[in-house]
Amino acid sequence: MQERSKKANYGLSDLLKASWMRSSIKFAIIGTIAALIVIWLLKAFNIAGIPLFSNIGAFFANYGLAGIFLATIAAGTIVPLGSPALVVAVSPFVDPILLILVASVGFTLGMTVNYSLAYRFGRPYVQKRMQAEHFEEITCVWNRWGWIIYIIFGLIPFLPVELLAFICGFLKTPIATFVALSFLPRLIVFALLVYFGQYMGVWLGVA
């Protein structure tokens, strides 16, 4: 009875103290700083004046949407392709609306692959290797805070939201809820990234 009460009182502050959550936040901060350093270096070395970069820009203009679609599908699984950085890089060269939609749909499809695999195979695998009380605790926490965690991870580009798709799968989250929580935050994120990328393109002199 006391154990159940403890689980019921498991708050968001307790969740933020979890090691995996702290590690994810640290990774997001480091990734953001690294991205800003790269952008500054590109400006410092005046990449707009390099002929090779003009060829790369032409390549993005011709094949960018197809490449982003395939890359975001892969990134939505567990392949570390860095889809936010790719979207920013391509955004000065392709139609912004199409880029936002293609990236959002691609990433959602990739996460749906994770969800489907975990939905079909994940629960028996996890239950065989995890004590019943630990599984119950994860279920309790996810039922209470899961959608909040998922939206937060979906709205912050460098957080590994694709890994949370596995949790949604083996905990049998309804598919309509999962798709909505996957697509809408990423739509917002990719829209902001495309706007940022176009601004950076003008600043760097490549757009």
Computed over alpha carbons, the radius of gyration is 20 Å
Number of strands: 0
Tell me the number of structural domains. Answer: 1
Contiguous helical run count: 9
Structural class by sheet pairing and helices = mainly alpha
Strand content: under 5%
Shape: elongated
Mean pLDDT: 77
Share of helical residues = over 70%
List unreliable stretches of 5+ residues: 1-8
Through-space gap between termini: 63 Å
Largest sheet, strands/sense/barrel: none
Q: SSE order, as H and E? A: HHHHHHHHH
Overall description:
The relative contact order is 0.14. By secondary structure, the protein is an all-alpha fold. α5 crosses α9. The N terminus is likely disordered. It is elongated, with a radius of gyration of 20 Å. The chain contains 9 helices and no strands. It has one domain.
Overview features:
207 residues; mainly alpha; disordered N terminus
Task: Give the secondary structure arrangement, pairings included.
Layout: H1 2-8, H2 12-16, H3 19-44, H4 51-76, H5 83-90, H6 96-129, H7 132-155, H8 161-170, H9 175-204
Brief summary:
This protein is mostly helical. It contains nine helices and no strands. It has one domain.
